[in-house]
Amino acid sequence: MTRRPAPFVIGLVAGSHVINHAYLLLFAPAFPLLREEFGVSLAAVGLALGIVNVVVTAGQLPLGYVSDAYSHTAVLVGSLAFGTLGCLLAAVAPTYEWLLAAAAVMGLGVAGHHPAHYPLISATTTDAYRSRAYSVHGFAGAVGLAVPFAAVPAALALGGGWRDAFAAVGVLGALYAIGTVLAVRRIPRSIARAGALARADSGDDPIGGHRLADRLRAVPGRLQGYARTLAGSPIVLVLTALWFVNSVAAWGIRAYAATLLDQGYGLSPELANTVTSAMLIVGAVVLLGGGYLADRTGPMAMLFAGYGSLVVLASIAASGLLPALAAVTIVLLLAATIDLSRPARSTLTDLASERSDVGKNFALITLGVSGGGAVAPPAFGYIIEAAGVGVAFLIVAATAGLALALSVRVGGLQGGQTNI
Which of 91, 100, 245, 302 is least enclosed, having the fewest CB within 10 Å? Predict the structure, then answer.
């Protein structure tokens, strides 16, 4: 199916990605300030961020279903609205318990952004520009993750506090949400409700043909139908496993690259953290290039190039035998190996999906991403304490090898998919 590129829609969801990712890591740079404010332990403050992620994980598939069955733009707007409400509630939290409740509301909002974003991009892009569209979306998300880390120090430098930083992020989100409410009116129904229209075209669920009670009773049957679809199209399940393994490797790199440079190569903690920050910037730039290359060469080439490079670079870095400058150079490239293939992974998931299942399928692979983020930091932390940072990065290399094997499997399944 040929579709006209729509920079307007891609720009709209990219902006939403910035806002939602800012909410996702809102608490992280304020941990010491929150601990002092509410008189709780660092672990208790970390629970607030944990609640955000738990709610995000739990909300993926339900909101993916709502996005596909009803409206992608409704989930887009609702995601921004609830995320903004949670952010502003956190800014005025009088107690620790209030902060936790605000975290839950914010998590509910963040949970909806992928189930809305990916189907909208899918419905509005052509094959020639698909990976580039996903690379713009991914780059915007990387910018969003940096927003809290800029907002909190800026507020402190101006004589304010964490509440001012949270409020500023919340006001930015509120303005963007209002603008989105107005902007979605310009999105054609064929894009805004692409999943629902595809289901109606198949005769499975005529839009407006049932009362609410009838729709609710039909949900279990539809979920069973989706499970049968997954069983008949295992490439989506393999891609979910690939996103999980990729997430494990990515979190191992992001969380412990500074530790590798500090403990393995003798850099000062300050310099090691600076190099890690630069590594993330390099990765975000490479992500944009990865989208362009995936459109030119095909997505599979990017998977093999990215994971093959990570196996080699992580193995070399783990040795601890490099000169410090060479170690810094390799670390700067580590995140880039992961980010190079991100647009390709998104494109493959899109192309493997029926139009009526895009939101649910991307919700499913996001569960893989969240699962990797939950497992990797404590697991790699334990490995570093028990066996050393070099062993941890050898395991990163082995994880990349597993991702390479899964990529080969994706390539094999891709050949049997008529819609890819």
Answer: 100
